[in-house]
Write the structure tokens for this entry.
Amino acid sequence: MMMELSAYRDIFIEELNDQLERMDQSLLALEQSPSPELIQTIFRAAHTIKGSSSTMGFKEMSDLTHEVEYILEWVREKKPEITSMLIDTLFRALDAMKLLRTEYISGSKYTNCSSVVSEIKALLGKPAEPERNTLPALNAAETLQAEAAVGAGEQLIAVSITLKEDCLMKAARHFILLQRLEAVCGTVISVFLFPAVTPGTDEDERYGQFTVVAATTKELQAIQDQLGDDSDIQRLHIAPYKIKLSKEAERMMDVPEASAQQANPKAEERGKGTHPTVRVNVERLDHLMNLVGELLIEQTSLADLSAAGQRSDPARVLPDISSVSDHMGSIIKELQEGVMKTRMLPIDQLFSRFPRLVRDLAQKLDKDIELLIQGGETELDRMIIEELSDPLIHLIRNSADHGIESPGVRVSGGKPAKGRITLTSFHEENHVVIRLEDDGQGIDAGRIKASALGKGIITEEQAGYLTAQEAVHLIFEPGFSTASEVSEVSGRGVGMDIVRSQIGRLNGIIDIETEPGRGTVFTIRLPLTLAIIKGLLVKVSGRVLILPMYNVAEIVRIAPEEIQVVQGEQAIINHGRIVPLSWLRDKLHYPRADRGTKTIPLVIVRSVDKIAAFAVDEIIGNQEVVIKSLGAYLGTLNHLSGATILGNGRVALILDAAYLVSH
């Protein structure tokens, strides 16, 4: 029966991502500490990818992973030294697999991976496989059994035995050896007899030469030692066996193969976007179901009280209604928290991509760098994790290139030759804090200021009143770079600007602490989620507006005479720092309204590394609000991040703090 395999596309892609990630992490671990277990893990992942890709008609991936599987089989059998050349070849093969994955998802033309295959064959010395190719093929049932054994971590072997000419009762000896083989190896999959029976041939002679295909977890040498002492065996040869289909098996596989080809997506079919998914712990779903059950019980209670109020004096049931309402409120609060947790993922899903990045950077820069990851279990909203990848990549590249010194410089400065980058995450109140720390040379504020002057990013006058901390934050300005030449890693002046803009879009804040000669720490603070926020309600020209609380640094009241003018712009002095001041009504082009008070309420807003004060008419208070999209039909409204519905049914606009502060 024809199978509609395209229905399984999203599941296939999700599994493919998991297995590629497993291969990446295991290869990194193999480079640091070789072990048979790691090789087996990589082999299993490659085997899984090959099987699922073949089923989905993804021949390009299946063919490449077949070669990767072959080299891993060679490593398992021959146990060569795990050299940097071997690891680099496997990493290049893995990169090619990732590229094919991306092309499969986007519907692009597949890249020719023949150069990677050539590398693998060159590494193996282009070994000939005459004996494997002459071995008999498996039928369909035997092939399925063999595939299952390989998937379970066993290796396939072909045991070829030739009995001595003077061996009596060859058939009986054949069956005895089969039993012994099964006891030694584990599973006998197929038995082939040579030669075939011809007229005039003694029946017993059929069993003089035979080959057994078996699945085992034992070493080939151990099997050779246990079988080689049999006095009736003239020749014993044991070698790995590569699955080969018989013509019968190929005929039986024709229907699934045709199905796979029909399901092999064309460019437009493959290019369909995947539906994002989140894996949720079953316990969390059970908890949500229990809460929904409690809510239904309270709903029934409320309906009964309503009916009782209609039959008698409503005032008598008001206390009971109030009690039920309070209980429903607590259930809804818990339900809200439970639903939010289903969107949460451990940040290790992001952090686990970076050891490979640091390894490749260290090789390109000819430096010795290690990455230490802590707090990978910290949970964060899936949307934020996806958007956080690029900023962290740029910060890591910056630390590796500009922060960590070369081994010679480090040793001469009394440091270990190996530099360290530490990536840490943890919860702090309603935020997630991510710290990226390196033990490099730190940031020289004077050099930063001089470079910014030379590039026209700041003026001489601005440079005069910049503090060291403010000068350090100039690295986030567009076009800023201290690199003397453009390299593959840095020097274009775009990386840190991207960091600031993307952290700002996530309503985050970034700080820099640095000490020349000791290192630098980047600290990023992010909200747990972007779906529900705690907002500060303010009134401006009779309208209620909302500012996200995680962007609110402080709320103050000042007298009009406290407003100062700095370089032609209004500002206030807050804790000894000059803070630009804007009237929110003017920013939003609202008409002026009579405040009726002598003091001016100010909301000091912070976004990424910038801060500004906004004058409002009234501070109402704070509450949790659900962010709703404004929809594309309103056009581009940069100063708004969404809207919400208040308790009185009115709509309140949510301001984009990052845009207001930067403009």
About this structure: Residues 125 and 261 are 34 Å apart (CA to CA). Residues 282-311 form the longest helix (30 residues).
